[in-house]
Amino acid sequence: MATASNLPPVVLNENFSVTVTVVPGPLEIISSVSGVLSGSPTEPITITSGTTSVNISGKHQNTFTDVFSYTEKGETDLTQTPTTVVGLGNVPDKKNLFDLKQDLRRNEIRTYILTVNGNQTLSVTQEVLNPLEVKRKFMANYNYNNYKGT
What we know:
- The longest helix is centred in the C-terminal third of the chain and has 10 residues, at 132-141.
- The protein contains one helix and ten strands, in the order ββββββββββα.
- The chain has one helix spanning 132-141, and strands at residues 10-11, 16-21, 33-37, 45-48, 53-58, 67-71, 83-86, 96-101, 107-116, 120-129.
- The protein has a four-stranded mixed beta sheet with strand order 1-10-9-3, with no helix packed on it. It has a three-stranded antiparallel beta sheet with strand order 2-5-4, with no helix packed on it. A three-stranded antiparallel beta sheet has the order 7-6-8, with no helix packed on it.
């Protein structure tokens, strides 16, 4: 039976790219490997199929349940019902972002399901790290209402 190693850990909201090579079992020939990220939330991850491996790249942005609240430019939570989104990847730019309820979990394990030769599946995992610095940096670099135009 074919095997594959787990992916190295990555930090939330940082780009990564890794190739996962499937090792054939005795008397086995690998001719195709494809994969999908299992479970939710969805992430901006690209999985490129290959003959004996897959390349997985992108960044995990929504793995943790950070809750962000915002209003439109010139509004506050007193003049407009705030919009709430979950995950870094769902926060639109140029809003009056005023609240973050941060997910304080240190890590989360994400699973990829690889399909080998169209009929055999393997699971590989990747640890996504959630250092507090990621959210601090996001909030510090966020483009609030400091823009010209509408």
